[in-house]
Write a sequence for this structure.
């Protein structure tokens, strides 16, 4: 049977050349295929490295520039750094060494705030220079108030003014940022300031170095900004008394001494006004540092106790002093 020779399409050489050109162009552009049903060039799939989108230091911390890098310190005013309503789990003044309860560590921030002096390197070991006495010694007492400024701060300032008493306010950075008028009032009435971290994380002595740097230095910056030009912070008090050589060294690099206490009535736990008063009266010795609270929760018992303690201190011949420095 005679077969008719198959005719080669005159378009095939052109088509072959087009495909070859397409493949060459795809190789240049990083594309994997061409000549699909739609005729479009298809991009080559790119393998994603886990966590690459969150690598700090590239744009705003991502490969695409449109999402935030993990571990960035929350800026004041952001959701992560909004002043929280003080709650009982975050109450301070409880040292873990004595079996007191500890709170959880809020946030995952690790960055050092812009404009803060370079942080010292990690310094392992135990704290050795925590202050627990007054500057003058003798029959003096240093009143200190933690976790403010808060709703009770104004009432405490009013009471202190009645007895011409001076005190040291250990402030949470984000609370200071939210209440600059109270910070300015503390300074205007002759009281002094102490850094008490940004978020009050516990156990504070277990924080990694970079996180401790942030908690201390960012709080310092927030309090200084709230207080205005010339604001000085003389002390740092670790949440829960969680001092170690590292956070003590960080504070010293910012010009702050580490401040502890010698009298702890545990007013944060709201044991009752009578219990707060009796604990102070039984524990206080000349030159002592009393730990109380003006923030971190309902401080009505602390205010009521202070109303009784101030006249008692005066009657006992105590004068009011600041902590040693």
């Amino acid at each position: 049977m005679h077969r008719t020779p198959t005719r080669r399409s005159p378009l095939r050489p052109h088509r072959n050349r087009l495909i070859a050109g397409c493949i060459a162009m795809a190789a240049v552009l990083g594309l994997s295929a061409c000549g699909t049903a739609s005729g479009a060039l298809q991009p080559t799939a790119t393998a994603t490295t886990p966590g690459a989108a969150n690598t700090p230091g590239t744009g705003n911390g991502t490969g695409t520039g449109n999402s935030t890098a993990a571990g960035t310190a929350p800026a004041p005013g952001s959701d992560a750094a909004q002043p929280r309503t003080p709650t009982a789990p975050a109450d301070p003044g409880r040292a873990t060494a004595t079996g007191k309860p500890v709170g959880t560590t809020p946030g995952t921030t690790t960055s050092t705030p812009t404009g803060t002096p370079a942080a010292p390197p990690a310094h392992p070991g135990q704290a050795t220079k925590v202050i627990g006495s007054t500057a003058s010694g003798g029959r003096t007492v240093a009143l200190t108030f933690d976790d403010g400024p808060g709703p009770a701060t104004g009432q405490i300032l009013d009471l202190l003014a009645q007895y011409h008493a001076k005190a040291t306010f250990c402030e949470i950075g984000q609370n200071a940022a939210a209440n600059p008028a109270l910070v300015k009032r503390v300074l205007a009435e002759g009281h002094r300031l102490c850094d008490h971290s940004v978020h009050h994380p516990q156990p504070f002595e277990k924080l990694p170095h970079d996180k401790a740097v942030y908690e201390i230095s960012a709080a310092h910056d927030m309090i200084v900004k709230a207080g205005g030009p010339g604001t000085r912070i003389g002390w740092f008090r670790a949440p829960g008394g969680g001092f170690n050589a590292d956070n003590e060294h960080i504070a010293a690099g910012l010009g702050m001494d580490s401040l502890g206490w010698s009298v702890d009535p545990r007013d944060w736990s709201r044991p009752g006004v009578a219990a707060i008063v009796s604990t102070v009266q039984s524990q206080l010795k000349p030159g002592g540092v009393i730990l109380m609270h003006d923030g971190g929760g309902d401080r009505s018992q602390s205010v009521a106790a202070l109303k009784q303690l101030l006249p008692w201190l005066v009657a006992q011949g105590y004068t009011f002093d600041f902590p040693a420095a």
The first strand starts at residue 31 and ends at 33. DSSP finds eight helices and nine strands in the chain.
